[in-house]
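Throughout our pipeline, every protein is held as a single compact record rather than as scattered files. The remainder of this section carries one protein's record, kept here as part of the documentation.

===
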Amino acid sequence: MPTYPWRMAPAGLATRRQLRAAGLRPGGQPVCAQILWQSRRRGVRAAYLYRIDRARPVRPMTPARAAALAAAMRARRTCPICGRDAGYCIPRHLGICVPCADAAAAAA
């Protein structure tokens, strides 16, 4: 697989995020190249590249998919203890909203 250093990939190749920003998706094509770089925290990192000319447009959001996404986000914001919408995604390491977590820590 062709490997390029950071910011040295040829034109016509893009990462998933770059494709998404352009309104495209890989569309089932295989990875055609990669970028490798050194990270201080995580060691060697990789980003996979796809051909832009073979990318397909992003599928439009259907009403059913929008409803399912809204329900999933509502579940991530709802505290299982107090049952109210926290207004933010509840941290996974707590599992409950911050006021409930603070009350539980103060009680312990």
